[in-house]
Amino acid sequence: MTPLTSSAVLLVSGGARGITAQCVIDLARHFRCKFILLGRTALQDEPAWAQGISQESELKNQAIAEVRARGDKPTPALISQMVGNVAAQREIRQTVTAVQAAGGNAIYISADITDQTALQTALASHNPFGTITGVIHGAGNLADKLIENKTAADFETVYSAKVAGLENILAVVPPSQLTALVLFSSVAGFYGNVGQADYAIANEVLNKIAHHFSKHYPACNVISINWGPWDGGMVTPQLREYFDKLDIKVIPIEVGTRMLVDELRANGQRPAQIVIGSAIQPQPAPPSAELNTVHLRRKLHLADNPFLGDHVVNHRAVLPMVSAMSWIANACEQVNRGYRFFAFDNYRVLKGIVFDETLANEYTLDLKEVSKTADEIVIDAMVHSQNAEGKKRFHYSAQIMLRALLPDAPTFEPPIIPSNTQAIPGAPLYQDGTLFHGYSFQGVERVLNIDKRGVVMRCVLPPTDAAYQGQFPVQAFNYAMADIGLQSIGIWSRHFYKMGSLPLRAASGQHFRQGVFGQTFYVTMQVRSHSDTNVIAGITLYDDENRVYMVVNDLEVTMSQHLNELFLKNRLPEALP
């Protein structure tokens, strides 16, 4: 990939107004290139009634007077159209002037990008810059409605501007001559958004086009930017309040334009799709009055879950305790749209799932609502199966708490580490049998302190993709991060008792925010009680500013010297030499 240069000629759909226009002005300031700005508004001489008037209220008064002078009735729709047309044309002229002042060169062409013939004719007749070397596709329409209220016309209006518009541009401008293709997509396409099914579909199509285009034209600088909401005219105080409630951050104009400049300045390989903005969380659906019970069935297959090759004891893949909790928490969230996993009580491993001859043909997850309000839902969860004789086996049980809005993450005060403490590297712990975990769970970077009271660790969460996570995607919480936290007890039990350990239950826990793959985090484990065979401890995961990710209270593990031998057998039979 090569950065943008001053010789570039950029065709910009929707480029004369709004946020796209602000981006063009900043690009002109940094690259001093040429821009062909496309829009549907036809430029005309400003009507006499509007000349010299800048205030919107006065423009409306003048428009009303003009309509009455013609003998017509000044309806609100007509007056809005007249004033809006004047404002649109003024903004277009201001954009062209601002681009020139910033050091670029711009021309505006009125053309409907959903009409390929009209677009081709307009460019052939009015392009003074010659060969177009780049495209920025910023055009788009909205028709926000719940899906049951949308019409075919609504869908066509939204979809055609994004998808048909881009297809027509690429039919008129040969892709082989492009050195840059920038698509303005949306976080609505990446996360989905209520009332924007058509908009989400259209933007996700743009994302897929970017990936396809980058594969077939590797010399072109291709990027689809999934923008969050910008802090522009469309973000009213009421809309900002709505975004604040959902913890959606708006993008300041100067920040967004600078990020676009940085992307087009970049040299070298980078993704064809990026997200700039906050995740969109669905709004909670109003809960029904009755308490419901849901039964969810699934089949589990070792081949479908590559990460299980990193959790092997005695040459058998074992479902991690935290992955089973993730399965339960994910299901609770999916059944209760918009509610998010916050806490659990009395989580028990009754009979863990081992991927060997004991693996059941099917597993059932029962979710029984205990109580619910608009703010909180409490659910009893149980995973069970049947053996070959038809006898029911119980595997995991817990009580789950969902919240409509998660509380702010608290601050944790970690213990003071003595100055003479010698840190222990984490890597050898995965080699000497202290820990049996493979790649995706090998997160302990360094044990900063270990004593009878507990353990303090610095960790890094290894990156894994969705395919590697298989049937247990990271959604409600990052179970790999949680597992790394639980390893602190295994390190402690091996250090002081020379025994391996496995978890049995956890009294309770809270989850405040999601951990990110590749990031550094810290774990403090505090021993509550211990015997020759058991340890009970509390675990807190937090960042370098001591803001908490999650807390596990009174986690109980069982210790055994026999586990030392089994932990060394941490590869599946087919992976053995």
CATH topology-level fold name of the largest domain: Rossmann fold
Q: How are the strands ordered across the major sheet? A: 8-12-13-14-11-18-21-20-19-17-16-15
Low-confidence stretches: none
CATH class of the largest domain: Alpha Beta
Number of domains: 3
In angstroms, what is the radius of gyration? 30 Å
- Name of the CATH homologous superfamily of the largest domain: NAD(P)-binding Rossmann-like Domain
Overall mean pLDDT: 93
What is the rounded distance between the termini?
A: 42 Å
Shape: elongated
The major beta sheet can be summarized as: 12 strands, antiparallel
Given the structure, what is the number of helices?
13
Q: Helix coverage percent of residues?
A: 25-40%
List the topology elements.
Layout: E1 9-13, H1 18-31, E2 34-39, H2 56-69, H3 76-101, E3 105-110, H4 116-126, E4 134-137, H5 152-172, E5 180-186, H6 187-191, H7 197-216, E6 221-227, H8 237-245, H9 253-265, E7 273-276, E8 293-298, E9 312-313, E10 316-317, H10 321-335, E11 340-349, E12 363-372, E13 376-386, E14 392-403, E15 424-425, E16 444-451, E17 454-460, H11 466-469, H12 479-497, E18 500-511, E19 520-530, E20 534-542, E21 548-560, H13 562-567
Parallel strand pairs: 1-2, 1-4, 2-3, 4-5, 5-6, 6-7
Antiparallel strand pairs: 8-12, 9-10, 11-14, 11-18, 12-13, 13-14, 15-16, 16-17, 17-19, 18-21, 19-20, 20-21
Brief account:
The protein is α/β, with parallel strands linked by helices. The protein is built from 13 helices and 21 strands. The radius of gyration is 30 Å and the shape is elongated.
Structure description:
This protein starts with 8 loop residues before the first strand and ends in a 10-residue tail after the last helix. The strands form 3 sheets. It has a 12-stranded antiparallel β-sheet with strand order 8-12-13-14-11-18-21-20-19-17-16-15. The mean pLDDT is 93. It has 3 domains: 224 residues, 3-Layer(aba) Sandwich (Rossmann fold), CATH 3.40.50; 111 residues, Hotdog Thioesterase (Thiol Ester Dehydrase, Chain A, Roll), CATH 3.10.129.10; 152 residues, Thiol Ester Dehydrase, Chain A, CATH 3.10.129.120. The relative contact order is 0.08. With 577 residues, the protein is an alpha/beta fold. Helix 1 packs parallel to helix 3. It contains 13 helices and 21 strands. Helix content is 31%, strand content 27%.
